[in-house]
Amino acid sequence: MLSFSISGSYTDLYEITMSETYFMEGRKDDTACFDYFFRKVPNKGGYVVFAGLQDVLNILTDLHFTDDDLSFLRELKFNSSFIEYLKRFQFRGNVYSCMEGEIIFPNCPILRVEGNIIEAQLVETLLLNILNFESLIATKASRMRYVAGNRLLSDFGLRRAQGMGGILAARGAIIGGFESTSNVYAAQLYRLPAAGTMAHSFIESYDSELEAFRAFAKARPDDCIFLVDTYDTLKSGVPNAITVAKEMESNGHRAGGIRLDSGDLAYLSKVARNELDEAGLHYMKIVASNQLDEYVIKSLTEQGAQIDIFGVGTRLVTGQPDAALDGVYKLSMASGKPRLKLSETLEKITLPGIKHTYRVITSDGLFFGADVVTLTEEQQKTDIMYHPFEAGKSLVIGNFQQEPLLQKVMEKGKIISQSYSLKDIAGYAKRRLLLLPTEYKRFENPHLYKVGVSKKLLALRDQLKDDYKK
Amino acid sequence: MLSFSISGSYTDLYEITMSETYFMEGRKDDTACFDYFFRKVPNKGGYVVFAGLQDVLNILTDLHFTDDDLSFLRELKFNSSFIEYLKRFQFRGNVYSCMEGEIIFPNCPILRVEGNIIEAQLVETLLLNILNFESLIATKASRMRYVAGNRLLSDFGLRRAQGMGGILAARGAIIGGFESTSNVYAAQLYRLPAAGTMAHSFIESYDSELEAFRAFAKARPDDCIFLVDTYDTLKSGVPNAITVAKEMESNGHRAGGIRLDSGDLAYLSKVARNELDEAGLHYMKIVASNQLDEYVIKSLTEQGAQIDIFGVGTRLVTGQPDAALDGVYKLSMASGKPRLKLSETLEKITLPGIKHTYRVITSDGLFFGADVVTLTEEQQKTDIMYHPFEAGKSLVIGNFQQEPLLQKVMEKGKIISQSYSLKDIAGYAKRRLLLLPTEYKRFENPHLYKVGVSKKLLALRDQLKDDYKK
After folding, report:
1. In chain A, which among 309-348 make CB contacts under 8 A with chain B?
2. B164 CB near a chain A CB, below 8 Å?
3. Please, which residues have CB within 8 angstroms of residue A86's CB and are 6 or more apart in sequence?
4. By C-alpha distance, which of B124, B29, B75, B43 is closest to B336?
């Protein structure tokens, strides 16, 4: 059996190499602070749904190096006193974060880790790995949710998922607004609704489609969806499904529905709906699958397709075409001093210091379209926010309410935030998305949400830049 | 700690639902045979490198339902006698497969599972999940290997990988021609060479870049690569790296090299190479990273960039933009009869029966550019192969040698094939790729490799089609 436990070695080698240097230099108790943020919304979207926090916090509470990890590090010739130190390693830092399910935007710090420099550095890779991927999928799912109206959405993607990434994808999909998953492992682990129909192979394994449908109806009289495109959707699949559904009625049962998996889903669903209705089978649902994504779902609903449930696979669970959120984890403080990374690419210059982030809210309670990043040491509310990279650009936000986004969720390695169910998290994402004006949610050239910085933060960054230039 | 073990529940719900029906209908000892193949080469390429076989076989030898799996299935209201059956479930089927590392093409059966209908059905999802993903990444890696010449390639992708998919990605990358990975977990699990440098945060955590380089050199005197773009690559990073490398020389050590992570990698690498050489540091290598893929690597090498090692992240481990191989698992026999799926999409009609696949080889020992699929019952060598979907198209292959691709690798659930090291598998992929003419390897409109069928197979399919139409 292939087993994977996310232990200390679930990281890039250089995290361990750097930590060894800190240790050997006597810096193990130096403090450090890192910010997690991303730079670009994937797939040409206007927002990202933040997901993966609970998984990360759960991993951090119990993160350690196993005996196997340590013996591998010995093989790699790490210093034995450092390996002794890792043997007792636990993450005992603090974490501040947005709520899981928050709607987030580029260049705004979403999560902050404070701790000793070794623990804060060592968790970088795993934190990025989980948050980047779950957020990618929650975002992709929310785009499908946005255009699916009141139709149900089910994750059918495990077979095309990137290995065990499919497990996290199922979770991300629920946060983004999906109702269920075909992935039994994920359903079991995260307590998600499991869903599924039947495969072509099932039907082919019988000598006739009718026989296959009857066998399935007998085994699952209260939960049976007939796949109707194995031979010919309209000439064979739908008529056979109707025949068996009527037989079920006479035995006091109700068929669940049919699934279309090829051909013109708009056309076929309308014809099938008509035929089901004419047979008095109004209660039977129509499930559609086959290379769906947010664009296909939008087009199908615009065409008035008679689809009740979309089963989405590849393009959900891989978040294609971008397939990654570019989240990064950047040092902002070390040994009590604010720290900065310069870059020839202006947008890659980081924001130093310990920071708060606030969301600007209109008098109607909606998102105004701006987040502002300030230093925690600032006493006063920020009236004007400045563009982080383009000098001279500013925006007056003084009249609006500002809602703090970050809260302490972990203290000295222990989770102190409330534990939310996935349903709660999905509900939060849904409510927050309702506050985001539609201009940011459209697929074509969505409106650009502004993230600005306070005057003091800008001044600190400029000062550090000058210091480094000297 | 988040732990994942690939058990029986690592599957789509419908595999279990269908299996329950087979069980309840008394069909548990019926036989079935499934083919694994894919339909489209991802990312506009001309071939796929087959990877993941050893992982799949290892999982199958020990596949079972855990107590947790079974109690979850009870919650889902599966029949208790079926759950009792699953309690004792083991995969005891046969598997025939291409060699791992084989170069494979669309619509050609690559792997065949024979077993009872429940075991053969239940393994579908996990087999697709692992083979599709590892093959995707091995293929992506091989495209980078193709243009990287004799430069080294290292997987730096875990932070952007799709969750735990990053573990399999590291393995796939090695099969496709990468030399190392930054992923410590994968290196440990699969015994891969681990590699890494240092991060910007390390440098920023010191009061000066020079101080940071000195600390690193002291801690890792024989294995140190300096990241040079934290403040200014040419004005600060490279000069400081040279200073410290010269100090190391005077202590009898040699710096490993420098890493460029932003800016114009072609230009910067040439200037940096010059400066290193002028300082007598010919032995120092130049590592480059930052959004690399096969196209960027190709362009860099064409520009004469002085790069010795490419560190590739996101675009390797996610296989973007397609991010998935569309492999499918289709029933070809059940209860001793050949089976067929029809479809309105011609290319989705399956190939019935138990089949062999042969690769046509020229007199020079190269791949001729054609694989032929025949029925195992055929006694004679196939002289003419037919297009599987376009009637009338055929190709004479009688003069050429035909090499069988499938061999039995698992018998009654036990691995009977030789166990190959990853180095062996990567070596096989490399040797086989050398036999593939370059037309199939180019990035722009690669030549179309032909997969055809024997006359008897075509006749069997036509006959089954006719039977169903009646």
Report:
1. 314, 318-326, 330-331, 334-335, 337, 339-345, 348
2. yes
3. A8, A65, A69, A70, A73
4. B29
Mean pLDDT of chain B: 96
Question: For residue range A128-175, what is the model confidence (pLDDT) as tens digits?
Answer: 999 999 999 999 999 999 999 999 999 999 999 999 999 999 999 999
| A344 band by pLDDT with thresholds 50, 70 and 90 | confident
Q: Which residue of B has its CA nearest to A77?
A: B220
The answer to whether the CB atoms of B13 and A326 lie below 8 A apart is no
Would you state the CATH architecture of domain B13-137+329-469? Alpha-Beta Barrel (3.20)
| Residue B458: φ, ψ to 5° | -60, -40
Residue A248 CB neighbour total at 10 angstroms: 20
Q: Which helix (H) or strand (E) holds A181?
A: strand A180-181
| B199 in contact with A, Cβ within 8 Å | yes
* Cα of B326 vs its chain's centroid, Å: 13
Question: What residues does each domain of chain B span?
Answer: 13-137+329-469, 148-317
**Chain B residue closest to A339 (CA)?**
B204
The secondary structure element, H or E, covering residue B464 is: helix B455-469
Q: Residue B310 forms beta bridges with which residues?
A: B153, B288
Chain B within 8 Å of A183 (Cβ-Cβ)?
Answer: yes
Chain A neighbors of B202, CB-CB under 8 A: 18, 21, 121
Can you give the pLDDT at residue B323? 97
| In contact, A456 and A374? CB cutoff 8 Å | yes
CATH number given to B148-317: 3.20.20.70
Nearest residue in chain A measured CA to CA from B227: A14
Which of B167, B231, B262 comes nearest A345 by C-beta? B262
Cα(A114)–Cα(A374) distance, integer angstroms: 17
DSSP string, A206-265: SSSHHHHHHHHHHH-TTS-EEE--SS-IIIIIHHHHHHHHHHHHHTT----EEEE-SS-H
Least trusted range by pLDDT, from A13-22, A29-38, B384-393: B384-393
Q: What is the ipTM for the molecules in this complex?
A: 0.97
Nearest CB among A128, A159, A326 relative to B132 is that of A159
DSSP A88-155: T-----EEEEPPTT-EE-TT---EEEEEEHHHHHHTHHHHHHHHHHHHHHHHHHHHHHHHHTTSEEEE
CB-nearest partner of B21 from A161, A219, A231? A219
Closest of A305, A310, A306 to residue A294, by C-alpha: A310
Q: Which fold does the domain A152-317 belong to in CATH?
A: TIM Barrel (3.20.20)
Q: What is the DSSP letter of A43?
A: G
Query: Is A162 close to B68, i.e. CB distance below 8 A?
Result: no
Residue numbers in A near B343 (CB within 8 A): 229, 262
Nearest to B163 among A164, A207, A218 (CB): A164
Q: Domain A13-137+322-469 falls in which CATH fold?
A: nicotinate phosphoribosyltransferase (3.20.140)
